[in-house]
């Protein structure tokens, strides 16, 4: 599939998230309204963030789909990381809303109404979220989309908290210990806060041009060594992530008497081998004469 096709498919998933999020929000909002539960409020509050985050992801993916231009010669893919950072901030704000509601319920405990209907509505919303998070995470990995993966992880976290909230809510109603309701809401807020901070941290790392995992770097070196027959060594390998793309550059040392055409053929062979196994690579190879060889380079003879 072409890059443009993948990007437009990513926006389709984002629109799907927006629709699913609205349905889930309606179900959880109704569950909170009929029960007046702080714990179910915390679940509904996180769903508000889900809807807002899905809208931001859709805008970011649409922007990232724009082709490279004079002002952005490397494309607009990093817009997805901005969306993921904003989503993380929204999750943190949701956690603060949850803490506020939990404190209010703790200070002014009250009876909970219609527990079975509320749990049934919440369970239906959780099933929708569970299926959709699985779809999003798979799509995010396949399309190498930070925004989709962040959205999928966020929805998956929502599923975990929803299950815990439903169990705790039933315990509060069944045992009569109403204090369990705000305590569970606060515990949910802590989990949501941890999830949001983690998302912000990983997304900021992407904006800071972090390198791939060590295993990926090792495989890059192996592919260069295997496909650069005729060259002497490769050194100064550097990589960085930018959204769906990974940029790779290195210096390739060749014999001084080698022709430009022969050196270019080696470069083509290396690029083909790398792209055959690792898609979405943007590769820059700088050719150097043999006197530029370094002991720390990757031997490719």
Commentary on this structure:
The protein has helices spanning about 5-35, 40-65, 80-105, 115-145, 145-175, 180-205, 215-225, 260-275; strands at about 235-240, 245-255, 280-290, 300. The protein is elongated. The chain is α+β, with helices and mostly antiparallel strands. A four-stranded mixed sheet has the order 3-2-1-4, with helices on one face. It is built from eight helices and four strands, in the order αααααααββαββ. Helix 8 links the parallel strand 2 and strand 3.
| Principal-axes shape call | elongated
How much of the sequence lies in strands comes to 5-15%
How many β-strand stretches? 4
Number of contiguous helices: 8
Q: Strand-and-helix sequence, N→C?
A: HHHHHHHEEHEE
Span between N and C termini? 35 Å
Going across the major beta sheet, what is the strand order? 3-2-1-4
Gyration radius (Cα, Å) is: 25 Å
Largest sheet entry: 4 strands, mixed
Classify the secondary structure makeup into a structural class: alpha+beta
Helix content: 55-70%
Average pLDDT across residues? 81
Q: Give unreliable regions as ranges.
A: none
